Amino acid sequence: MAPTAADPIALVESAYRWTTDERAWLDAILATAAPYDVGGGVIACTATAHPTTTVRAIDASANTAPADVEQFHRVVAAFPPALARQVFAPAELVGSAGHRLGRIASSASGALGQAAAVAARELPGMWGLVSGAPRAGALLICFPHGRRRPAPDDPFPHAGRRALALAGAHLGAALRLRQLAHAAPHADDAETEAVLSPGGRVLHAEGAARTDRARASLGAAVLAATRARGDARRAAPDTAVAEWTALVQGRWTILETVERDGKRLVLARRNPLGTDDLLALPPDERDVAWLAAYGHSYKFIAYELGVPLGTVATRLRRAMRKLGVTSRRELLRRLGTSSESPKEK
After folding, report:
1. Which of 117, 162, 241, 312 has its CA 20 to 30 A from that of 300?
2. How far is 212 from 326, CA to CA, in rounded Å?
3. How far is the C-alpha of 242 from the C-alpha of 126, rounded, in Å?
4. Residues of the chain with confidence (pLDDT) below 70
5. Cβ atoms of residues 293 and 327 within 8 Å
6. How many Cβ atoms from other residues are within 10 Å of residue 20's Cβ?
7. Quick one: pLDDT at residue 149?
8. Residue 55 and residue 137: Cα distance in Å, rounded?
9. What is the pTM of this model?
């Protein structure tokens, strides 16, 4: 049953619930995102940019204007791949979709800038949450205004907007998991590196999960996720989702499963961000630099990767030194990306 009140944990749980049918998966996410509707309904879609822009699945709540859905679908499907790669990059906040495109248009030149400007004009007025994955495309959840186009500085008018953005980090993690798995995750498959009890006790570990540090981090993450799903969620769902990071040590996603004998287990699944834009950097620095390039704050990157705040700062400094840049602006220019500002729109 869909929640009647905004519940970011319900949204996260719907994303991590396995189904082979992408449309059914999208329907479940749409149902749990419906309470964030601000008057014009909710649209959800999955899309990829390689080799051409493709809207893989799309759905909308019953109260969304069909014309808005059709126009949204048409505009997104018409993105040139170079534009889609920028639009589909993960966002830290729920922001004005037209403003996001307008920023790209103002910073890009030639055909890319023109395409972004046209899309900004033609897209229905809406706010959007983009949960992008470097190789897996994007999950877009959009909230049409219903009456007028949001101004660039209009914040998303829902009290739970910050918790929704945190849930968005999990949506991106879930999207990557779907690209890695061809069947329901289980304790014995190749992508599971640790199996834990719901109380955080490590029952089995292999590979990188065997170290004492990894076992401690995974145990703590399981306890945080358990709290988020339980009493903490009922008391304060926005606070609960802040405890449950999207990854652990930038490597694993925590999934709860029920085995054939009815036993509840928690799986630590390999789920790296998978950036490949900065081949000269090691993966941990590459992921931080890629997220920073799209304007994510240190605090949000720490949440996305499940690493301490100080680790984010250290890795970014190392990456910038190796790339020969001295500021965030130079990093953006080096990567050739168009970034959203960390400030809420």
Report:
1. 117
2. 36
3. 26
4. 1-3, 147-152, 232, 260, 277, 279, 335-345
5. no
6. 11
7. 66
8. 10
9. 0.92
Identity (one letter) of the amino acid at 8?
P
In angstroms, the CA 74 to CA 235 distance is: 41
Digit-coded pLDDT (tens) for 112-138? 999 999 999 999 999 999 998 887 799
Q: Are strands 252-258 and 137-144 parallel, antiparallel or unpaired?
A: unpaired
Helix (H, G, I), strand (E, B) or coil at 195: strand
Alpha carbons 265 and 254: distance in angstroms, whole number: 10
Measuring CA to CA, which residue among 72, 15, 11 is closest to residue 40? 72
Closest-CA residue to 290 (of 89, 140, 137): 89
CA–CA dist 120, 331 (Å, integer): 26
**How does pLDDT run across 24-59, given as a tens digit for each residue?**
999 999 999 999 999 999 999 999 998 899 999 999
Q: How far apart are CA 328 and CA 286, in angstroms?
A: 14
